Amino acid sequence: MRDFTVAISWYPGHMHKARKELGALLRGAGLAMEVLDARIPEASSNPLLRHMRAELPVVRILNKCDLADPETTNAWLSHYAADGGNACLASGRDTPLDSTRLNGHIRRLAENARGGVQVIARRGNSDFSGSPAVSGKIAIIGIPNVGKSSLLNLLAGRKLARTGNTPAITRRQQTAAYHPDWTLVDTPGMLRPRLEDQRAALLMASVGSIGAAAIDTSEIGAFLADRLLAGHRHALEQRYGITAADNTAEAVFDRIAHARGARRKGGAADLERAASILLQDFRSARLGRISLEFPPDMHPPTNHHKQ
Ligand SMILES: Nc1nc2c(ncn2[C@@H]2O[C@H](COP(=O)(O)OP(=O)(O)OP(=O)(O)O)[C@@H](O)[C@H]2O)c(=O)[nH]1
Ligand SMILES: [Mg+2]
Question: Which H or E element spans position 106?
Fold first, then answer.
C-alpha cells in the first residue's frame, strides 16, 4: 500500500471567528449535539471540539447512516453507548432520527449535568414531561459537511438553515426554537488549523468534509481506491469491471477511465477524472453502503467476507 505523506491543511478564514463564537456558545450551552459521519465516526470527531466542549454532555449523532454499512453503524452505536453519561443515535435518509428517544436523552443528560442548564418550572409537554423540565441551548457541532444544518432543519420542522453538498456552507451560528424549553444552535463546521493526523484528514477528504482546494483529487482517490481494494473488491468489480490482476489505485483508475470513457486527447486515461468518479460514486453510495472506520472490537471487512 502506498505511503500517503501529503500535508493536508484547510482552514478557511471564517473558521477563526467561528471558533471564538463557538467557544462562547459552548460555555453557555446546556448540551452539545455532535454530528459525526457514520462512515468515519472517529475521524469525523474533531479533537478540538472534544476539547472545547469539555464536560458538556453530548448526544452523538451518527449521520448519513444511509451511506454506511448498517452492521458497522450498529457496532459504533454499541461502542458509544458504553461512553458513560453520553448518548448516541443514528440518523440518515432511510432512518430518520428517533425524536422521542432524542428528547429522552436530552432531558436525562441535561438533568444530570452541572452548569449551563437552568432548571425551570415543570411543564406539561409530552416528550419532556416528568420531573422538572430543563432548558438551555443545544449546540449542534461537528466538522464540515456532516449534516449539522440538515439536522437543525429536521428538528425545527422547516428549512431555516442553508445546506449543500460542499464543506463550509454555514458561516455563522443560527438558532431555532425546539420545544418550549430548548433552542437549537447550528454552527459552522470546524476543523483544526493543522490536520496533524493525516489518516483522519484523508478519511475526512474521502467523505467530502475538506475543501477540494486543499488536496489533489487523485491523492484522495488513490487513498480510497487502496481501501476499497483491501476490503471491497467486489464493489469495484461490479461497477468498473476490475479483474484479479488489478491491485493498485492506478489500475482501478485505468478501469474506471475505460468504463466511463474518461480519456485525454490522444487517448490516455484521464486519471484525475477517474479519481473524481470514484469519489463521487463512493460518496453517494453507488458502490454500496461502505464504512471506512470500525470500532476496536470489530474486524474490518476483507475480500473474503460478503460485501
Ligand atoms: N445521504 C445523506 N445525505 C445527507 C444526510 N444529511 C445531510 N445530507 C447531505 O449532506 C450535505 C451536507 O449537509 P449540511 O447540512 O449542509 O452539512 P453541514 O454539516 O451543515 O455542513 P457545513 O455547514 O458546511 O459545515 C447536503 O447535501 C445534505 O443534503 C443524510 O442523512 N444522508
Ligand atoms: Mg451547515
Answer: helix 99-112
